[in-house]
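MODEL INPUT / OUTPUT PAIR
PAIR INDEX: 1
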Amino acid sequence: MLSNEKISTYKDILNEELRVAMGCTEPIAIAYASAIARDALGAYPEEIKISLSGNIIKNVKIVIVPSTGGMHGIESAVAAGVVSGRYDLKLELLSVLEQQDVDTVEKYKRTCQISVEELVSPCNFDLSIEAGAAGNKAHVKITDYHTNVVAVFVNGCDVTEKYRNEREETGKSLKKADRSLLNVEDIVDFADNADLEGIKDALLMQIEMNMAIASEGLRGDWGATIGKILYDNGEAPLKDKLKGYAAAGSDARMSGCELPVCIISGSGNQGITASVPIVVYAKENGISEEKMLRALVVSDLLTIHQKTGIGTLSAYCGAISAGVGAGAGICYMKGGGYHEIAHTLVNAVAILSGTICDGAKPSCAAKIAMAVEAGIVGCDMALANKQFYGGDGIVTKGVENTIRNVGLLAREGMSETDKEIIKIMLGK
């Protein structure tokens, strides 16, 4: 039986992770920092130097920045953030831009002296802006995750407290809940028995937003239309419908769709992948809302659990973790308990671990489809009492040990791979 402390912690983790964002979160984090710089200076910056860790650069290079008329790249994200100025909206700050603002963003991007450099940092998510206007200087630094403002200075004066996200509207501390308390057995126990009070609204928001952008992806001509191809106008088998819906959300999101998404582990693609297959499977099979929500809890928390050891950004595609989570959630709806869910996770990890992250872009949708496929195959294997065993590659006896191996692979083993990916993408 879970302790009240652990139940409370798991709820806090979900409420911290399930956040709203408009557009790919890395360019939006740049826009957020740029809006802070404008506010700190009290004017549009005349010059901006932005320094970014390589993982941020690769996720901003190709993806479309929302509300900019199709612009992409770091300079576009900077300009859009300055023109918006609404740092108080955090990852939704570009939602206030209207059609007439597109010309303003374009003109500002051309006239402001914006320089970009790669930031050598031990942190995979590190962002620093130095901005100047009318002889005044501002410095903004965000580290570790997208809204973690750690420093804001104006002419050498520390004004960080105005911008640091230390408190929610309720006054509750924003110190992150202890993710080391996550483990597969307790996650399943929590999903089975916890009262959904305090997390239901966040889960329903995740469903509503992410299904909306997935549906838009199936309607429109977004990206490479991976979702539409797989979904085949609803004529596809259920497995392909699950993959198609999830991929369609990414099709739209990576190509500039302005619909918001509910993120998880700092990523909209992961938020979509962890949730959309759960909802589609539940609707297709007449699963009750409560069972669906509890399955979503399994998917979300297992995604977070895997990502905790990997880190915010890495060379390891985060959609894989979310696809594994979705497979586990589907297993839960099929009646699987802890043992079946643990084997689903291990099976799916064995199938697709090591898929590289080479930036946010249209092909992310295809990776999402394959991640959901791996989750489904892992589930089918587990329910047929088939599994991969310790010694099969990175699989080790014990699900927690295998999750730990994935973290080591992504964080340590693929660090050189990450450097080479960034070099290739920057043409070095």
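PAIR INDEX: 2
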Amino acid sequence: MRILTGRAESENVVKGSRFLSEVIPVSSQAEARDTLKAQKEKYADATHVVHAFISGLGAEVMGMSDDGEPAGTAGRPVLDVLKGRGVTNILLTVTRWFGGTLLGTGGLVKAYGDGARAVLDAAEAAGLFEEYVEKSTFSFSADYAQYEKLKRLLGAFTVSEVSERFGAAVDVSGKIPAADAEKLKAAVFDATNGKVSVTII
């Protein structure tokens, strides 16, 4: 399963109607809802803001809306394209400004589906997808002498979002792939002769 790491957009015009497709990273249904609300406010002059989203590690939460287009002609084709890409934690919106010519149900399905494919292709081309790796949060507290040693040790692991707080001791926290969490815990314990223990969440 892959996740989106940044925004991308694509635009096309079909028989005078303008379609602006955008993908936005989201981590939950609530975030998708809030982001969609912001999109609708941003494009208050648009005729429709159609959307589909997928979230969850196993892509278990999905949603979509035709936003006033005939049922099944907009949200469903967008969601189908998303599902076919094996992606999660993503919101895809297609904003339409009506150009005066009715497209018919087949024309709408094609226009929304094409818009969804085009923006996903743009995100692929920009390198905005990465394999989802489940991460754990780690934290430990060490004195300054141990901290120097442990800082070098951390460099041997793939860690991210590391923060350090300097006080009487150094409090360190960050994220690590869940598969490596116990290895980090053992390495820190060994390196400090059991004086520093890592908490894994």
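PAIR 2 NOTE: The helical segments are 29-42, 75-84, 104-125, 144-154, 181-191.
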